[in-house]
């Protein structure tokens, strides 16, 4: 995993480029396009709030969890496509096409799941496991449904809209930094949150998945990483997730020790271990994307003139 050649077998080799052609926009679409950022954010925010409101139904039992969670995820994708077509006039919403969809979702889930598993194993090696309790398979399935909805909705909002539009305007580097900070700040007021925890999740949940988007120009790999990390964390290990205690999981790991090791009340995401683990795939994906010429200069930054 430390070498690019090894990691390339996990990451997709096919690159889906953004669609640059679009039919002529109507007067209404031209007006919407002038304010596309707030319109798109507001539209997907409504979808996200609705999904969060319905997430309570997924906790009733495993059947509702498996039905409602994925249904909310599919609805979010269709809503995003509809908004992109109506507001931006994009007939081909290339970041959510079917190309390599399942392949990238599987690879992303593998990366995210293994990254969190490695984090927990290292925490355990240094004495951070205080108690391991039992849970249920039903709880695991409930969490599967919830995290499917969460991963899709959050990635569409933060990478599909905020990062993508920031990158168009300010370039890849600025978009990586700003979108990661924004993602971290949304967790600042969670229970147990600290400035360090906010910074850590900005890199783990912001920069790492944004790098996956830059590499593939698709939302499927970021969604897979986001889902894999959250599902293994909350559904298998049952640790505190972004300050929220988990009850629906196979096991319940209680951690103790220094906050830099365990993440404290915010959970393992705020640990130095998680930050270092996630820095590895992040650096590799950024390096690979740069080598493939996927870093872009925004419209606000004119190209350099060569003598």
Kindly describe this structure.
It is a single chain. The protein has 307 residues and is mainly alpha-helical. It has a domain at 8-14 and 100-291. The protein has helices spanning 4-7, 27-34, 36-58, 62-88, 101-125, 137-170, 172-185, 195-216, 220-237, 259-262, 272-291; strands at 129-134, 251-255. The chain has a two-stranded antiparallel sheet with strand order 1-2.
Provide a brief overview of the structure.
This protein is mostly helical. The chain is 65% helix and 4% strand.
How many strands, which pairing sense, and closed or not: the largest β-sheet? 2 strands, antiparallel
- Counted by DSSP, the helix tally is 11
Low-confidence runs: 1-22
Order of helices and strands: HHHHHEHHHHEHH
List keywords for this structure.
disordered N terminus, 11 helices, 307 residues, mainly alpha, two-stranded antiparallel sheet
């Amino acid at each position: 995993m430390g070498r690019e050649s090894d990691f390339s077998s996990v990451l997709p080799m096919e690159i889906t480029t953004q669609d640059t052609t679009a039919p002529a926009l109507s007067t209404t679409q031209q007006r919407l396009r002038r304010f596309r950022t707030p319109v798109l954010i507001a539209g997907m925010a409504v979808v996200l709030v609705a999904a969060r409101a319905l997430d309570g139904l997924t906790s009733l039992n495993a059947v509702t969890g498996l039905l409602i969670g994925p249904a909310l995820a599919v609805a979010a994708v269709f809503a995003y496509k509809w908004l992109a077509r109506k507001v931006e006039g994009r007939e081909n919403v290339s970041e959510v096409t079917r190309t390599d969809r399942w392949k990238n979702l599987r690879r992303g889930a593998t990366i995210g799941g293994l990254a969190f598993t490695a984090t927990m194993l290292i925490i355990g090696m240094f004495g951070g496991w205080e108690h391991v309790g039992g849970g249920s398979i039903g709880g695991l399935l409930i969490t599967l449904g919830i995290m499917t909805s969460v991963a899709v909705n959050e990635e569409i909002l933060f990478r599909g809209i905020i990062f993508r539009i920031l990158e168009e305007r300010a370039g890849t580097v600025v978009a990586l930094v700003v979108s990661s900070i924004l993602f971290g700040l949304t967790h600042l007021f969670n229970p147990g949150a600290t400035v360090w925890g906010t910074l850590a999740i900005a890199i783990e949940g912001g920069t790492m998945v944004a790098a996956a988007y830059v590499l593939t120009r698709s939302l499927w790999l970021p969604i897979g990483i986001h889902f894999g990390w959250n599902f293994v964390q909350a559904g298998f290990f049952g640790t505190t997730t972004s300050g929220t205690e988990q009850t629906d999981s196979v096991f319940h790991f209680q951690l103790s020790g220094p906050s830099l090791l365990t993440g404290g009340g915010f959970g393992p995401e705020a640990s130095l271990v998680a930050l270092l683990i996630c820095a590895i795939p992040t650096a590799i994906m950024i390096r690979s994307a740069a080598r493939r010429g996927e870093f872009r200069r925004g419209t606000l930054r004119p190209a350099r003139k060569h003598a």
